């Protein structure tokens, strides 16, 4: 497989773009080599600028749950385009998408649309602070909630427990109200409450997807919520990745727990920049223009993005692919384990709904520390072998693979062969 045109564009891109990318994970930094440039995509496939075709398990990191360019979504976008692109005034479709969201999440009476997951989360934190009148927020080590200052902590294991900024340019003052707890460890949350009386709430990925897929232990979220309520603090569930992905009502529907504030993104925009945060009326009424918490956006509720979101969620509800996702993910887990075993490679596979990934490690992965034990070099070998077999995966050991409802039997057969070959390459590389 040749990547000549990608290589050329990469060299060219370096001049006027930072690292030739607009988001660092696209840079392939942790697997080596240069990033691929994509030309187009359709259904379950994505095509690079060298005309190599891949089965896509990245799906733009989640949004393209129906596969690329679903015809109903495309039709809705084209129709919306004819009416204009943005008005700085309300449109009917904003109400329609809001109703879909409120119907899907029992804990959401009202919603506010924004333009990214990052924006949804930072607004949700402001809202939790506005509502409780308290300043501190607890986040879990290894969870990613976008790139706002206050949440760029514990992105790396060494800094995790110290509450030091995980990025240059983030002042210590910006993270001084961010406390770090360990995923699946309620005592680490309680320890903070023992020390501080000004904690507004806890933010969590209900299924962690940004340290690889890590599942909450039985009842962890329920226990967490009960505890928080006993302390007059809020549970903020970041469903930017999991919303509409594992179930129409998100991870909350699967886990049977309702957030005080929910953050959404990715799938909700059907491939366009949409984020959202929502909650019960009494909480949302804090937000301007009803209340004193300010939050605004020139392009928020953008008509094209709303049309894409409505069409995607309507089609998703109709297809109801969640049982199929479960079956495909189980098959993929078994295939990964079987091929790894065949070639004597240690792996752990974690999955939830349509999110799955193998960790090249032994034992189990229930938190960031255990995820960090993975052998990223093995992953890099595996990754490139998969690319060469026409399978597009996220270029990091610590990212979830995503399933789309457009995957075919043939795609899965091809995936199985590729996994066998890639595990063999990993084994060979060890010798
Ligand atoms: C992707 C993601 C975000 C950030 O969303 P952006 O649209 O990239 O700003 C926040 N939280 C979670 C859980 C995510 O997966």
Automatic annotation (TrEMBL):
One GO CC term, this protein: cytoplasm
Cofactor requirement: pyridoxal 5'-phosphate
Pfam families: Aminotran_3
Record pathway: Porphyrin-containing compound metabolism; protoporphyrin-IX biosynthesis; 5-aminolevulinate from L-glutamyl-tRNA(Glu): step 2/2
Residues modified to N6-(pyridoxal phosphate)lysine: 266
Enzyme class: isomerase
Entry's Gene Ontology molecular function annotations: glutamate-1-semialdehyde 2,1-aminomutase activity; pyridoxal phosphate binding; transaminase activity
InterPro entries per UniProt: 4pyrrol_synth_GluAld_NH2Trfase, Aminotrans_3, PyrdxlP-dep_Trfase, PyrdxlP-dep_Trfase_major, PyrdxlP-dep_Trfase_small
Subunit structure: Homodimer.
Protein name, per record: Glutamate-1-semialdehyde 2,1-aminomutase
Protein source organism: Aureibaculum marinum
Chain's gene name: hemL
């Amino acid at each position: 497989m040749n990547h000549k045109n990608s290589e050329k564009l990469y060299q060219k891109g370096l001049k006027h773009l930072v690292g030739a990318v607009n988001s660092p994970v696209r840079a392939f930094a942790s697997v080596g080599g240069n990033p691929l440039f994509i030309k187009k995509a359709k259904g379950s496939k994505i095509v690079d600028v060298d005309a190599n075709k891949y089965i896509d398990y990245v799906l733009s990191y989640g949004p393209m749950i129906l596969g690329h360019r679903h015809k109903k979504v495309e039709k809705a976008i084209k129709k919306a385009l004819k009416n204009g692109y943005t008005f700085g005034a309300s449109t009917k479709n904003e109400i329609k998408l809001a109703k879909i969201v409120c119907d899907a999440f029992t804990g959401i009476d009202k919603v506010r649309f924004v333009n990214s997951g990052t924006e949804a989360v930072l607004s949700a934190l402001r809202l939790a602070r506005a509502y409780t009148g308290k300043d501190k927020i607890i986040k879990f080590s290894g969870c990613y909630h976008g790139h706002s200052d206050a949440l760029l902590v514990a992105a790396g294991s060494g800094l995790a427990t110290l509450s030091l900024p995980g990025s240059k340019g983030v002042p210590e003052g910006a993270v001084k109200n961010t406390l770090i707890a360990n995923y699946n460890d309620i005592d680490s949350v309680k320890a903070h409450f023992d020390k501080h009386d000004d904690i507004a709430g806890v933010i969590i990925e209900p299924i962690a997807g940004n340290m690889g897929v890590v599942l909450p232990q039985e009842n962890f979220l329920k226990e967490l919520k009960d505890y928080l309520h006993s302390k007059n603090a809020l549970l903020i569930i970041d469903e930017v990745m999991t919303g509409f992905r594992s179930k129409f009502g998100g991870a909350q529907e699967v886990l049977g727990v309702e957030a005080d504030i929910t953050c959404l993104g990715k799938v909700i925009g059907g491939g366009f920049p949409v984020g959202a945060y929502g909650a019960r009326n009494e909480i949302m009424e804090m937000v301007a223009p009803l209340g004193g918490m300010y939050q605004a956006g020139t392009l928020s509720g953008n008509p094209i993005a709303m049309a894409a979101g409505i069409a995607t969620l309507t089609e998703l509800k109709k297809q109801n692919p969640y049982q199929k996702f479960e079956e495909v993910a189980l098959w993929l887990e078994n295939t990964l384990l079987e091929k790894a075993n065949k070639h004597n490679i240690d792996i752990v596979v974690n999955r939830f709904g349509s999110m799955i990934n193998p960790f090249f490690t032994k034992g189990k992965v229930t938190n960031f520390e255990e995820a960090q034990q993975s052998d990223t070099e093995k992953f890099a070998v595996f990754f490139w072998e998969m690319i060469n077999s026409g399978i597009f995966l996220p270029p990091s050991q610590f990212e979830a693979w995503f399933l789309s409802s457009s995957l075919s039997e043939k795609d899965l057969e091809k995936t199985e062969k590729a996994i066998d070959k890639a595990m063999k390459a990993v084994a060979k590389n060890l010798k």
